[in-house]
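Hey,
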Amino acid sequence: MSLDDRDMILDVACSVVNVSATEPDGNVVVYCTGIITEYDEVGKCAKVLSSSSIMCSEEGKLRDPNQKVKVSVHLSNDTVVEARVLFFNDHYGVSFLDINTEFPLVPATLGSKPYYGQNVFVLDRDDEYALVVSHGSILYLEKPLFERNHYMFASYNSSLTCICGPVIDNNGEVIGLITSHLPQSAILSISIVKKCIQMWNKFGRIAHPIHHLELKTADVGYGLQR
């Protein structure tokens, strides 16, 4: 890793936080990573992109509402603030949170999308807020499991299985999120995330097509002759 890469990663890390869901008895149901996407200096509030696992089980079922799980965001100044869940979608594996804090936050820069063969870094926060950085590339691999034709996969090794860590390019832009481990790390393109946020802001809901299809990308080369 070069010095430029290190500095770039440290800049992005300012936008990467820890999110937890806790039961009333203090038992932590799940830890996951979160990304600051918006910060309002006047209203002292921020939007956080995270995983749907704070609201859903591994099987995709909604957690028992009687559990009254509290969602919290852990910030870099050692403070913990309670979050309000704006929306979550288990099909895409994401949630969008709202928090209030006097602590100034730095939103991440959202890019366009990942592409096959691209070199990437993956950032995660463990349950002690330590930053874990992995490096790899986007694989030419498709596993349309559970009708998740939108999954892409990365080649990197990490003992951390925390989800919703940002996948960033060499410019420090977030181009995807780690949504699960199959065991390869499945990536959701940030373009889909932005579309989910747009649909929620406009319609108050998120739609996705259900065609019961398993789709694959075809790499077609064309030869031209004169």
